[in-house]
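yo

u said u wanted the structure for the complex thing, so here. seqs first:
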Amino acid sequence: MRDRAVILGGLALFLAAVTWPAWRTLASTPPPPPDLQRPAGATRCVAPAAFMRASHMTLLVEWRDRVVRDGVRTYVDADGREVAMSLSETCVGACHTDKAKFCDRCHDYARVTVTCWNCHVAPPPPAPGGAR
Amino acid sequence: MFEKALVGGRGYWAWITALLAVACAGAWAYGAQLETGLGVTGLSRDITWGLYIAQFTFLVGVAASAVMVVLPYYLHDYALFGRITILGEFLAITAVVMCGLFIVIDMGQPSRVLNVLLHPAPSSMMFWDMTALGGYLALNIVITRVTLEAERNGSAPPRWIRPVILLSIPWAISIHTVTAFLYNGLPGRSFWLTAMLVPRFLASAFAAGPALLILLCLVLRRWWPLRIAREAIASVALIVAYATAAHVFFILLEVFTAFYSQVPEHVRHFTYLYAGLDGHAALVPWMWVSAALALAALGLLVVPGTRRRESTLAAACAAVVGSIWIDKGLGLIVGGLVPSPLGAVADYVPTTREILITAGVWAIGAAMVTAFFKITAGVRSAHR
Amino acid sequence: MSAGRRVFLRMAGRAAVATAAGAALGCAAGLPRRHRLGIAIDVRRCIAAGGCRACIDACHRAHNVPDIRDVRHEVKWIWKEPFERAFAAEDAETITSALRGQPVPVFCNHCDNPPCVRVCPARATWARDDGLVTIDAHRCIGCRYCVAACPYGSRSFNWIDPRPFVAEPMVRYPTRTRGVVEKCNLCEERLADGKLPACVEACPERAMVFGDLADPASDVRRVIDERYAIRRKPELGTRPQLFYVI
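structre next:
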């Protein structure tokens, strides 16, 4: 085959290009883990922390469908506590009041683009003195 | 057999390169649309469908028109169409792909388009349109693959392909019927709310589609051994003639109903299109050009002498395609949306980006159909 | 005919009759709703207030409706139209002078037979049991088929990102994003809190009466029983639930 050199060369170039992200990550120093600011007032989440860490989006989608499509607005968690199923008013408004120091930090670290805030309005973080 | 599209002369590659350049420009403009939203188009709160949906409507007709060459050959053994059916089917595949592109381009949230399949709504004609077009595309891909492969091997195609081809005949009618149903089932749009929209769509499809097929054959036959007999083209020209006559007749029927009954709801849309309304007349010159082209084409097609001479036939086919592209495109869409439900009259002028995106999709379609015809010619020249 | 074929034909015939009967029963005009929300608008009281925009401002503020000045891209849930435009009256000169040219509020009619719901290919818009027609902005693909289907022009599409045009977004209700359709939602979130729709509550003339039309004792039912009311384009069979008392 006259073209062996070209074919093998092209193949090698392709493999190098396609595995480039892996090389780049291995060669660079990893960024520090995100410094997440825990909520000030609230002590318990609506679900266990391990579940939330892995699947909070599943919970949010379930909330979304219950509110928008079924008209049900109240969530009863495993301990019998009732919360309003609202991203802006419960998740951020009541607990993670400074979303930039919690939600955004982890999302940025994991390079996750969330589109929720295209529509949902985050309440502004409380002033340093605690009052809003 | 795809490799046959990769061998060609300078002219072929120059053409393909030019088309891909236009497609890239269209892709760049689409990027701008994805970034900002459909606000980069000339669409507005009252005129929510425009150039993209107009292309879609026209091209579904072209896709359906393959039935005009498939039906005579496979159902009635009209041997003359033996070598032309595959070209009609290739044109259909190209047209359906372009339709799909225009639909996705017109969506406000294109990443969510699969919601139509994830959350099916059988009451929606758009759901049925998607399934019908998808099925038609699959049918034609299978049919072209099997029949062209058989031709290349010099053997008859396998027997199981015959019922598949026969299925594509009513399926072709159904894709364009369901597209017409998209429009004529809407209670608030009196311009579209007529059962006649279905026969009008079919007639214009069977005029413009085969006309486009004739043009492609006449042009590409100069360079490539497509082996299409003059008599086959003459026969398709006869179909175009009858379909164009029906198409013009149906338009006149609509005009009569509107202007004899004088119901303002019906009259206003025609007035806007052909004379302008409240000072808005952007489409008026286009509609009269469309009418003139249709009548000129009809004249050339009805007279056997001009229909048989290939130069005048080509002119007539180009006129048919141009006329129906206008009338079934922006004429139909904007005419139906203006005046608005509240009586508002506005003009719709596509923006440069919109036109560039549209041109990009047409370039992709032109490249596809060129490649398909090249493959067919390659098979036919190799098989002496 | 063989015994097997006879049996098959008998079964097929019975199945066909059963299917047809079922279809007929299903189609035979939907069963009456237990609750049917609607609004009666006293047009004369509204007109008496002159250039009042209280309902529009209340609605648009409560729902983060953007204020886009470019009329091609405007988004509106409720607005005022001249009487002739709202009711497509052909001879405006012959309308009583009290109503001729006067602005009346128009918004989604929350039809009992909504064509917009019928056409949505992704079930992003639907009618609740009480007749309220709502949109799931997460599911909408932005095809604008519903906009074409609405005979009243009630729906708006987001041609561009609306957020820059919302002056002070309310936290308790989201905005929308570009590429989706929106319209009046009959204040579904306020109704869940036991409140009245924002427009009804804001009207300084108390011109709008909201309630359950299926309840013979409700205020809105009494209004349309006692006074003559018209609806927009009733001949289309959409059964709109906004009653304009003239």
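Residues 35-245 of chain C form a domain with the Alpha-Beta Plaits fold (CATH 3.30.70.20). The first strand of chain C starts at residue 37 and ends at 42.
cya
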